[in-house]
Amino acid sequence: MSERINVVIYYDGEVRDTENIIVFLSKSTTRLLFSQNIDLTELRKRIKRKIFRTTPMRVSSIKYRFYALVDPMRYDSFDIKGTRSLKVMVQTHLASGSPYLELYVQFSSPNEAFATSTSTAAQRNTRPLHDTSLGYYETSTRSDDVLPTTSTGEGTSYVIDDGGTDDESDVDPP
Predict the structure, then answer these.
(1) Record's superkingdom (predicted)?
(2) Tens-place pLDDT, residues 16-32
(3) I want to staple 101 with a disulfide (CB 3.0 to 4.6 A). Which of 85, 93, 152, 169 is the partner?
(4) Given this model, what pLDDT does residue 21 score?
(5) Fold of the CATH domain 4-159
């Protein structure tokens, strides 16, 4: 039996990339539980149904936030675009021992050609983050050997391009 993953989903807000941390600012959050063997199409469908139920919206992007490899007080993130990046996300989460995985999801209507994205550079924040009223959390565990990436110390967002398509078959037929 595969392990179940507890997810906190942030949406309808913004992603701030500060010097030390990637912050998901959102008053809208929800939780989801899924199997570690889920495929990306099914994950998109479950997220959409959890948040919008029958409204014809589609998941336009998913961003995963995790502890940086070189500094336990710093977060990095990468976009989930295909099978490979989804597997890396699951492996990173399982190796971290964190009680939940954090995703920031953006939506668009099926008629929109492009979804908008908000990222904001901010001043360095040296205080630990734990403010559920703004929709972000900090966990206390991390892993040092999961992703083969190098941190730049500037809050870099990593994109794992695995040739995944932008097939948005998560919209239910009318």
Answers:
(1) Eukaryota
(2) 777 667 677 778 889 99
(3) 93
(4) 72
(5) Ubiquitin-like (UB roll) (3.10.20)
